Amino acid sequence: MLRLALLGALVVAAVGAVADIAPKDRRSGFEFMSPQTQAMQSDETSNPGMLWVADGERLWGESRGSAGKSCASCHDDAVDSMRGVAARYPAFDEETKRPIDLMSRIDQCRAKRQGAPSLTQQSDELLALTAYVAYQSRNMPIAPPDDPRLQPFRDNGRDWFNRRLGQLQLSCASCHDERWGARLGGSVIPQGHPTGYPLYRLEWQTVGSLQRRLRGCLVGVRAQPFDFGAPEFVDIELFLMERARGLPMETPAVRP
Amino acid sequence: MIRALVNVPKTARRGEIIEVRAMIQHVMETGYREGPNGVTIPRNIINRFVCKYAGEEIFSAELFPAISANPYMAFSTVATGSGTLTFEWTDDQGETQSTSAEITVT
Amino acid sequence: MKSTRPTLDEAIRSFTGGAAVREARVKFEISPLVENGNAVPVTVEVDSPMTAADHVRRIALFNEKNPQADVAVFHLGRRSGRARVATRIRLAASQTVVALAETSDGAFWSAQAKVIVTLAACIEDISQQ
Predict the structure, then answer these.
(1) What gap in Å lies between CA C117 and CA C25, rounded to an integer?
(2) Taking Cα atoms as reference points, which of C22, C7, C3, C4 lies closest to residue C101?
(3) How far apart, in whole angstroms, are the C-alpha atoms of residue A190 and residue A179?
């Protein structure tokens, strides 16, 4: 059933031309959800992602690692110091001379400044901290930095976005540029903007990262997914954030 | 890392009906799922929830695997006086999590 | 594998002890079409004065097709002020869901709803997690 639907999408996609979504037509996945799921996200007292935000707030103030420091030891109140930060990530990392996403930056900061062991991308602790930091940008427009050093990586991300992958030979663009608004197996295809990560996905029944979602997409087109933390994912995120420029941050978003 | 969030109005007039919301982080493992190795993941759900207002039980619930992960409940109570609302969740492993909220009634 | 769960009617009877159930006074809010069966918002409100003499004691939810018929039993009382509860439930398939209320006079009231669960496309393979 799903395979047939995907093949149907492929046939239709094959005749369409690749075109970027004009800024005026950019729409968050929020707009494609049912009113019930929208309400679950909008009302913070019922948004399950707020459990991770609250946990992140607690972790922000707790000492970790050999340095005996908490995030707050250096960054004080995240409400001020982290405001708008997530809307500008991924950023250029001087150390690796590559873009780094928010989760990896937090983990890097833990290792370097706190002397704490690295956390996995899937750990609730790192998801909670990232959700708490990103929450400080809620409702702020996505504003990627104009750092020219990021451009080659962003271009690489764009290439991946437009590349046909997997047994189904679908690109991200096949669905999210050319077929958004259409139905696939009963659900509406959104434009694929990363406005609300980390987010609570009803399918997952928990909070997860953009990389987890991208891996789901890759499995969906029957492609071998990149590993968590793969540089390709950061390049794709860099492009996706540029593509979503101006849309409001929604962390913690809720998606079906 | 279980974490609970409750929402109770900070103030209310005596006799006013207030809405209380409670949400807790819990996987609510149904006991009907298989893990990647094909072995059934044992059931572990929050099976009981109790809310007390100034020590008296005002609402409770028996929950089953059909309650969503990270259970959310909203219910009402009459603001009878200033005091503490306590919330307690118990799961299949006997683990209990609790939290509280204060209300000022005028 | 043969299901051993009770039918919806059997589950209701075990809650009511066989007493008559009237389809009245219960307002059951649940979307007829849901995007994901893992978290379906529901609200049940019972028409009751919620006084010491006349109030709702229990509100229960039962389903038709999950592996287990029970969903939840909520205990209310005269201090509730309003007989209204909301939660989020799991529905494994499109099916009927029933909300039942027991009032302080020992009477039972109900409302039912049919829900169609659409499956999300591109579901993550659990082995990939």
Answers:
(1) 26
(2) C22
(3) 8
Q: Does C7 touch chain B (CB under 8 A)?
A: no
| The domain over range C8-118 is classified in CATH as 2.60.40.2470 | yes
Yes or no, beta carbons of B73 and C127 under 8 Å apart: no
Encode pLDDT of C8-46 as tens digits: 999 999 999 999 999 999 999 999 999 899 999 999 999
Yes or no, beta carbons of A216 and C34 under 8 Å apart? no
Q: What is the pLDDT of residues A142-191, one digit of tens each?
A: 999 999 999 999 999 999 999 999 999 999 999 999 999 998 877 889 99
The verdict on pTM exceeding 0.90 is: yes
Cβ atoms of C97 and C91 closer than 8 Å:
yes
Closest chain C CA to residue A211: C129
Domains of chain A (ranges; CATH) run 2-43+149-255 (1.10.760.10), 51-135 (1.10.760.10)
Contact B72 A46 (CB under 8 A): yes
The rounded distance, in Å, linking the Cα atoms of C55 and C76 is 8
| Token output for C16 | 């009511």
Of C31, C118, C124, the CB nearest to A186: C118
Total H helices, total E strands in chain B: 0, 8
Among positive and negative, which fits the CA dihedral B2, B6, B10, B16? negative
Chain A residues touching C124 at Cβ < 8 A: 203-204, 212, 215-216, 219
Domain ranges of chain C: 8-118
Contacts of A205 in chain B (CB under 8 A): 27-28, 68-70
Q: What is the ipTM of this complex?
A: 0.95
DSSP state of B69: S
Contact residues, chain A, for C126 at CB < 8 Å: none
B11-12 and A254-255 strand pairing: unpaired
Closest CA to A241 of A161, A171, A124: A161
Domains and CATH numbers, chain B: 4-105 (2.60.40.10)
Cis peptide before A141 (omega within 30 of 0): no
Residues of A in contact with B28 (CB under 8 A): 205
Q: Which residues on neighbouring strands pair with residue B63, listed in sequence order?
A: C72
Are residues B43 and B65 in contact, defined by beta-carbon separation less than 8 angstroms? yes
A109 is catalytic: no
Tokens of A7: 């093949």
Q: Which residues of A lie closer than 8 Å to B, measured between beta carbons?
A: 45-46, 48, 50-52, 54-55, 58, 124-125, 128, 205-206
d(CA C65, CA A35): 25
pLDDT band at C124 (very low <50, low <70, confident <90, very high): low
The CA distance from A186 to C119, in Å, is: 6
